[in-house]
Design goal:
This protein has one domain: Clavaminate synthase-like (Double-stranded beta-helix), CATH 3.60.130. It is built from 6 helices and 20 strands. The strands form 5 sheets. The chain has a 7-stranded mixed sheet with strand order 1-2-3-17-8-19-4. Helix 1 links the parallel strand 2 and strand 3. The chain is globular, with a radius of gyration of 19 Å. Keywords: Dioxygenase, Iron, Metal-binding, Oxidoreductase. This is TauD/TfdA family dioxygenase.
């Protein structure tokens, strides 16, 4: 039982590809240790030529830890052997929000973000597989916060060292404060169910550090332009201008050091949610795209709700 591990891309400082993994091998302790060590070092893994099934996705997910239910209750669940944390991300033809970006009309577009920024607890990781792939587009982009920190303008880093960012559960394109590119046009708003809106209104704002330090000593620049409300203590014009600078720098550096994954049915991908940002390119609204995702439980212990709001862990111990 041998794994084949190679770099994701020789031009990037993060990510690996692993091939040779079977469902049976996910129960082998030595294999599990090897995979987790690769994940901790690389930040993301593309598993190639794996069995395209819920059973394989669950077996692989459990290599990294217990699963967690997604905090947004209205997101569709997948009935996968009674296990928690399996959700379906479906973009049906001619449904959902449609935007024009980079001169193209696409659905299911998302800017750079990390998952659950609107929550006090950050899940450890996510694992994705493509159940239905579009003929073109539908790429998932990844951007490493360790690489971002190293490349970020020094003067801008000095201004945000120690800063904390406010986030809220808001997926409306029209009311994003910082994430939308200047040329973005909303052609059709994203439909939001009443349950989603009710949960969003009831949640306090979440707070996460702009920069944090791993146990390994590496600094991580971890800012989600999507769903961001501003900088704690600086919800004013100067703070907004600073956050706009941060977003511009992220987008400019992303052009140099991001990875964009074109999906195959026999691939699964895991990313470190405490370290990576991700984005979705969107696709032709006439086509359907279906992704299955599992959420790996965990928390880095640095998030909290504003004014010590009700719910979740606040500044508790980390598992990294």
């Amino acid at each position: 039982m041998t794994l084949h591990i190679r770099p994701l891309d020789d031009k990037l400082d993060f990510g690996v590809r692993i091939s040779g993994l079977t469902r049976e091998m996910t129960g082998d302790e030595a294999i599990r240790t090897q995979i987790n060590a690769a994940f901790e070092q690389a930040g993301m893994i593309v598993f190639e030529n794996v069995e395209p099934s819920n059973a394989m996705q669950l077996a692989l997910s459990n290599v990294f830890g217990p699963l967690k239910e997604h905090p947004v209750k209205s997101i569709a669940r997948v009935d996968a052997e009674g296990m928690p944390g399996v959700i379906e991300l479906r973009s049906s033809p001619d449904s959902g929000g449609i935007v024009e970006v980079n001169g193209k009309q696409v659905s299911h577009w998302l800017p750079w973000h990390f998952d659950h920024c609107y929550n006090d607890e950050l899940n450890r990781a996510g694992i994705l597989r493509a159940a239905k792939i579009t003929p073109a587009g539908g790429l998932t982009g990844f951007l490493d916060g360790i690489s971002l920190y190293k490349l970020f303008p020094a003067d801008l880093l000095a201004r945000i060292e120690g800063a904390e960012i406010l986030y809220t559960l808001n997926s409306h394109y029209e009311t994003q404060r910082f994430s939308n590119p200047p040329d973005l046009k909303v052609l059709r708003s994203k439909p939001m169910g009443k349950d989603f809106e009710a949960q969003a209104r009831a949640m306090p704002r979440a707070i996460h550090p702009a920069i944090w330090t791993r146990v390994s000593g590496e600094k991580v620049l971890h800012v989600s332009p999507y769903m961001a409300e501003g900088i704690v203590g600086h919800e004013d014009s100067a703070g907004d201008a600073l956050f706009a600078e941060i977003t511009r720098a992220i987008n400019e550096l992303a052009a140099q050091c991001s990875y964009h994954h074109a999906w195959k049915p026999t691939e699964m991908l895991i990313w470190d949610n405490w370290r990576m940002l991700h984005a979705v390119s969107g696709h032709d609204p006439a086509h359907e795209r279906i992704m299955y995702r599992t959420t790996i439980k965990g928390d880095y212990g640095l998030g909290r709700f504003e004014n010590r709001g009700v719910g979740g862990r606040i500044l508790q111990d980390t598992i990294i």
